[in-house]
UniProtKB/TrEMBL annotation:
Keyword Transcription regulation: no
Name listed for the protein in its UniProt record: Sugar porter family MFS transporter
Subcellular location: Membrane
Keywords, sorted A to Z: Membrane, Transmembrane, Transmembrane helix, Transport
Taxonomic lineage from the root: Bacteria, Pseudomonadati, Pseudomonadota, Gammaproteobacteria, Alteromonadales
Length: 504
């Protein structure tokens, strides 16, 4: 009896153990399947994140061509002047031709961006750069040279509108600042490469200037080829073309962590925002007075710092201190390196300490560098001029350089963001063109200490402006920022607040 009871007990224990083991096995299979699904989702997210970065990087290469095209002329401008016997006025016109094209591109670049789409406009920019590079290199007189540079300027102007706009429209909100910052980084990188290229090509003979200008054709072709693989902006597809299915596919790719219902909500918010076009207030209105003034003044002070004049004429400025031409070109390459490093710092700080704080830091740096430069020229202490110029470039990159494009895009409401960005960009380039046009004459008529003293005085004005007028926009949702600026409209659509929503 006892033996039977014992056997029955052992039997039940075996059944219990077998049941437990079976359950563990089933649970293991379930866990494995869940892990497999999770890994697949993670892989999908990783792939989409890589695609997003690649798309943002490709479109931001317009900034590389922008920086390269803007500064490459610095290595050729003196040769061009002597080759064609240009007066100071005609010399200024030849150098500023690209900037006048930039002004026109910035003024009207919003039209092809909205009419033909972001991607087609990005490709067209590359074609403009390519034509400009080859034509500039082969120019046989100053007038055809001006036309060629003007065409390149059109590309620069349009790129300042469409490239940041495209990146912001494909980027989730939590990554928008860093990804849009790639445009500014590539501008600076293009400037550095242009300075290095000029230094390397400067000693190859009397036609060195043609190679300096023509080499831009290589990155222009690469950029154009890459742009053919870009998806169109989901906001343009949904809001302008009413192609909701294609827009949703792009939204799903750039927001892999969002569910189908969240993608649907985001799509509907874009549709709703597009449907408010008929009731929006005019751009030139009392409502938008404050952001219009802010956009104008940040662009105004950006150029009245003398940044473009110093970048364009860096070799000439260094030669004023007694450096030889080749040494001056190498010092100019040092400007590019300083600019690149300081830009890294500015982009790292912009979402940490804020736009307003960076403008304070930049303004103080401007004043110290420009003031010391004026003193150095006045007292013929030329040895410190290169250091002062490098310090000036660092102050610009950390301050205005890092802030301007982000700030202009933030301060306008959604329905006027393209127009507001066009206003800020065109103001920036009008003053850049004027500075480049008149700088050769100004440094001939006035001693350098007065020129740098004027720039220093303008930066004191910027510091006062930042203190009294500039709001801090760091970490403020766009809808809340519109209320903060006093420009919120009754027609504004409430969009779901989420760090994953694109372009907020």
């Amino acid at each position: 009896m006892f033996v039977n009871f014992y056997q029955i007990t052992i039997y039940h224990k075996k059944i219990a153990i077998r049941t437990i083991l079976n359950q563990i096995f089933k649970d293991r299979i379930v866990i494995q399947n869940k892990l497999k699904d999770a890994l697949m989702v993670d892989n999908k997210k990783t792939n989409n994140k890589n695609k997003l970065f690649l798309w943002a990087l490709t479109s931001s290469l317009a900034g590389f061509l922008f920086g390269f095209d803007t500064v490459v002329i610095s290595g050729a401008e003196k040769t061009i002047q002597s080759l064609w016997g240009l007066s100071s006025t005609l010399h200024g016109l030849a150098l500023s031709a690209a900037l006048w094209g930039t002004v026109l591109g910035a003024l009207f670049g919003g039209w092809p961006t909205d009419r033909f789409g972001r991607v087609k406009t990005l490709i067209a920019i590359g074609v403009l750069y390519l034509v400009s590079a080859l034509w500039s290199a082969l120019a046989t007189d100053p007038y055809s040279f001006m036309i060629a540079r003007f065409i390149g300027g059109l590309g620069v102007g349009v790129s300042t509108i469409v490239a940041p706009l495209y990146i912001s429209e494909i980027s989730p909100a939590d990554k928008r600042g860093r990804l849009t910052g790639l445009f500014q980084f590539n501008i600076v990188f293009g400037i550095l490469v242009a300075f290095i290229s000029n230094a390397l090509l400067g000693g190859i003979g009397e036609n060195a200037w043609r190679w300096m200008l023509g080499v831009e054709a290589i990155p222009a072709v690469i950029y154009c080829a890459f742009c053919f693989f870009l998806p169109e902006s989901p906001r343009w597809l949904i809001g302008k073309c009413k192609n909701i299915a294609s827009g949703k596919r792009v939204l799903a790719q750039v927001n892999p962590h969002m569910t189908d219902s969240e993608i649907e909500d985001l799509t509907q918010s874009i549709v709703n925002a597009a449907n408010t076009v008929g009731v929006k207030t005019p751009f030139w209105s009392q409502r938008l007075k404050y952001p219009i003034i802010l956009a104008f003044l940040i662009a105004f002070f950006n150029q009245l710092s003398g940044i473009n004049a110093i970048l364009y004429f860096a070799p000439r400025i260094f030669e004023m201190t007694g450096l030889g031409q080749e040494a001056a070109l190498l010092q100019s390459a040092g400007i590019g390196i300083t600019n690149l490093i300081a830009t890294f710092v500015g982009l790292w700080l912009i979402d940490r300490i804020g736009r307003r704080t960076l403008l304070y830091i930049g303004s103080v740096g401007y004043i110290l560098a420009l003031g010391r430069c004026a003193w150095a020229f006045a007292n013929e202490v030329y040895a410190i001029v290169p250091f002062c110029i490098f310090f000036f470039i660092a102050a610009h990159a950390v301050g205005q350089g890092a802030v301007i494009w982000v700030f202009i895009a933030e301060i306008f409401p959604t329905e006027h963001r393209t127009t507001g960005q066009s206003l800020g960009c065109s103001t920036h380039w009008v003053f850049a063109a004027m500075m480049t046009l008149f700088f050769p004459t100004v440094v001939t008529v006035f001693s350098p200490q007065y020129v740098f003293g004027f720039f220093c005085l303008m930066m004191i004005g910027q510091l006062i402006w930042v203190f009294f007028m500039v709001p801090e926009t760091k970490g403020v949702p766009l809808e809340a920022l519109q209320k903060k600026l006093g420009i919120a409209s009754h027609n504004d659509i409430e969009i779901k607040q989420s760090s994953s929503i694109v372009g907020q």
